[in-house]
Amino acid sequence: MAAVSELLRIATAGSVDDGKSTLIGRLLHDTKSILEDQLEHVAQTSERRGDGYLNLALLTDGLRAEREQGITIDVAYRYFQTGAAAGAGAAATNGGTAATVAAPEQPGFRGGRKFIIADTPGHEQYTRNMVTGASTADLSIVLIDARHGVSEQTRRHAFIASLLRIPHLVVAINKMDLVDYSQEIFDAIVADFTDWATRLQLSDVVFIPISALKGDNVVERMDNMPWYQGPSLLYHLEHVVIATDRDMNDVRFPVQWVIRPMRDEHHDYRGYAGQMAAGVIRPGSEVVVLPSGRKTKIMAIDSYEGELDVAFPTMSVTLRLEDDIDISRGDMIVDAEEAPTVAREFEAMVCWMSEQPMRPGGRYVIHHTTRSAKAIIDRLEYRVDVNSLERDGEAGELGLNEIGRVRLRTSTPLVVDPYSRNRTTGSFILIDESTNDTVGAGMIRSGR
Amino acid sequence: MRPLKPLRSTTLSIPKATLSPEAETEVTTRAKYELSHLQTLEAESIYIMREVAAQFERPVLLFSGGKDSIVLMRLAQKAFRPGRFPFPVMHVDTGHNFPEVIEFRDRLVEQLDERLIVASVQESIDNGRVREETGPRASRNRLQTVTLLDAIAEHGFDAAFGGARRDEERARAKERVFSFRDDFGQWDPKNQRPELWSLYNGRIRKGEHVRVFPISNWTEMDVWQYIAQEQLEVPSIYYAHSRQVFERDNMLYALNEHVELMDGEVPFEASVRYRTVGDMTCTGAVRSSALTLAEVVAEIAATRITERGETRADDRVTEAAMEDRKREGYF
Question: What is the ipTM of this complex?
Answer without folding.
Answer: 0.90
